[in-house]
Amino acid sequence: xxxxxxxxxxxxxxxxxSMPKMSEEAIxxxxxxxxxxxxxxxxxxxxxxRKKTKGFxxxxxxxxxxxxxxPEQQRYALFLPLHELWKQYIRDxxxxxxxDAQPHMIQSKxxxxxxxxxxxxxxxxxxxxxxxxxxxxxxxxxxxxxIITKEDKLKxxxxxxxxxxxxxxxxxxxxYGSKFLLRASERSAKKxxxxxxxxx
Length: 200
What we know:
Layout lengths: L3 H15 L5 H10 L24 H7 L15 H14 L9 H10 L6 E7 L8 E7 L3 E6 L4 E5 L3 E7 L2 E6 L7 H4 L13
Antiparallel strand pairs: 1-2, 1-5, 2-3, 3-4, 5-6
């Protein structure tokens, strides 16, 4: 068996080393109780601030010409596979576009659908030069559609004061551009209200 005095001396030294903030009297008081609760003083860790990754500004995107389509890529035939993908996407979205489908249900889904790859035609416009333009939508912005025509010409058509039509499997849907002034990402989350037709 250990010598009681040696054990007492060891415990006293251990407590003094482990708890330097305690006074001699406090250590002696703990020893008389014969119960020791050791305290732990963890080192404070400095929190590292997370750096937020910033994307490009609108000015930087314009300078880098991120949204511009190169002239050699402005060919209608190049984007026909995109149109085929879009048709399959709409069929899946509308559960097959069956003959007994309710038109207003299809219309409500088309309002929120991605239109990149859709073939649209300008049917009405306050500017007569836009009427009759038909092509595949390559890019949709808040105020304009960029459309590639069969003549391999890239047309920038404003949404405002224009009515567009798109046809798929016998269903013809009309888009009133003046009520469509939203980005594609914003449009998917917007609740559209049923309104009457708009005269141009």
